[in-house]
Amino acid sequence: MRHRLLVVLLLLAGALVIAPGTACACSCAPLEPAEQVKGAAAVFTGTVVAARRVGGDPLGTPPPVVYTFRADQIYKGKASAEFEVATNADSAACGYNFVTGSRYLVFAATGQSGLLTADPGVALNTSLCAGNLLVSPGDAALRAGDGLPSGESLAAELVTALGTATPPPALPSPTAVATPAPDASGGGSIPIWIYAGVAVTGAGLTFTGWRFSRRRGRSRRLPD
C-alpha cells in the first residue's frame, strides 16, 4: 500500500514539474493571409545571409537572434536591399528558426515585442505566429501554384493578399581607387616634365662645354 502511495505522489510531482514548461509553449491563433499582411510593417522575400545573437539573460534564457536578409522582392514597407529582423532563439518562445542560405517570405512587425527577452537593437521583429514561409530559391515575385520546399504549392489566396511586388534597390558597389601603373623597375611612373627638364639641362651643359672649349682653342692660336 505504501509503495502504491509513493508511486502516486511521484506521478503528481512529475506533473507539477512538467506543467510550467507546457504552459510556456508557443500557441498561435490562425490568421488569414490578409490579416498577416495587415499586421506586418514589412513583407518581403529574401535570403538569409547572416545571423547573430543579441545580449544575454542571467536566468539562462537564450538571447534573441537578429537575421540579415538580402531582399529580392518587397510587398510592403520601405524598399531596402537588406533587412535585419529579430526573433527569439527558442521556438517554444515563439521564435522562428531561419536557416542561413535559405529564402523566405517574411512578415515583420515594428515596435517592442513582449516576447523578446532583450532589446535586439533593430526595428523589425517576427515570430512563429507571423506567417513566415520557406519558399523556393530565386528572385522572382511569388505566383500562385509555385512549388514550395515542403512539397505543397503556394496558395492563390496568399498571393492575392500580398499584392504587387517591387524589386529592392541595388546594393552600393565598392568604389574603385585608381593607382598609377608601375614602370619596369618596379617603381611608380615618372612624370613627363622630369624627362623634359633633364633633356634641357643636358643640352645647356653641352652648349656651355662647347663654347668653353672653343674659347680655349682661340686663346692658344693667338701670337705672343
TrEMBL record:
Q: What residue ranges are annotated as transmembrane?
A: 192-212
The protein's UniProt keywords, in alphabetical order, are: Membrane, Signal, Transmembrane, Transmembrane helix
Domain of life the protein comes from:
Bacteria
> Which InterPro entries does the record cross-reference, listed alphabetically?
TIMP-like_OB-fold (IPR008993)
Which residues are the signal sequence here?
1-25
For this protein, the record's Gene3D superfamilies field holds: 2.40.50.120
> Which protein are we looking at?
Tissue inhibitor of metalloproteinase
